[in-house]
Model the fold of this input.
Amino acid sequence: MRNGLLIVISGPAGTGKGTVVGKLLEKNPNIKLSISKTTRKPRPGEKEGVNYFFVSREQFEEEIKNERFLEYAEYNNNYYGTPKDFVLESLRKGFDVILEIETKGALKIKKAFSDAVLIFLLPPSLEELHRRLIKRGTESEDEIKTRLEIAKNEIKLVSEYDYCVINDDVDNAVEKIQKIIEVEKLRSKRFDIQSFLEE
Amino acid sequence: MRNGLLIVISGPAGTGKGTVVGKLLEKNPNIKLSISKTTRKPRPGEKEGVNYFFVSREQFEEEIKNERFLEYAEYNNNYYGTPKDFVLESLRKGFDVILEIETKGALKIKKAFSDAVLIFLLPPSLEELHRRLIKRGTESEDEIKTRLEIAKNEIKLVSEYDYCVINDDVDNAVEKIQKIIEVEKLRSKRFDIQSFLEE
Done:
């Protein structure tokens, strides 16, 4: 049984990661999404085990000690981490696994798993990102400015990623990511020459 | 104008490279095939400018001296080489260019053009390759044995290639190569971050 592919998807807030990943999962039963753990309190509408696993600070730190995370980081006094067991077990069973995580975590994953495939999802342009953030209406004008600055800094890390997909249209972006996954499985490094020659 | 992609396709004799590349060109007017030069005499049915450009030993050596080849090698006392001008000019015009060359030449190209994409075309199995060589009926039993030994040695070089495509079915193999080309264009290293940020 061949191991699945570990796929990391990052992208600035407002790029539409959630929608793209949702559609990707809907269309590909062989892909599983890793749900992160966090110590942050659930926001209205967020569901345990769907958006995050919500745990106490004590529990999170206990799990850090026991090396239960593939990667974790602290933002605004809250921990966020990728649970190790679910990911490794799913890969072993042959499922492809998606981590939807921010750039810092993504680069940690790349260091630890050289076989991971890192995809950066981009808005069609910074202007379009600006328009989308305004339309979303969840941030103040100042917050939107901050978001755009953060986005610019994140985009500077694109070169650390393997692929760069522009989300001009959700279906289009989903199709591109599907093709990336398919083509990554044709990489020579994933081909078992020995068993081919011995067959 | 973005440069085209330099694609190298290799694979053991009898794998069906010719048929796959022919169909790929037919379906993709944006892909050009590089025709090699050789000092070997044309075989019955071979056409100047279609299979090869046939030139004299003197002319070939003159062109080596003038650095007119991307790569060249000598086999059985005959030179074979990839003309530089056609390839570089086509890439500059935005065409993707295919080199259908053997493994030694392929690895030379990879050294000189780190951006080149190397694809190894494999038969479904060594047994199937054996059957195809017998069916082709152009080689004696001894020659077929030699071909299979050469094939095994070539296949050991698969790990030097970027991708490995099994030619179980021509249309299937063509589609995979098309996807590889499409996905390679999504690589971050080919993405112009600077102009995205400045737009």
Q: What stands out?
A: Residues 41 and 54 of chain A are 7 Å apart (CA to CA). The longest strand of chain A covers residues 69-75. Residues 141-155 of chain A form the longest helix (15 residues). Chain A has eight helices and nine strands.
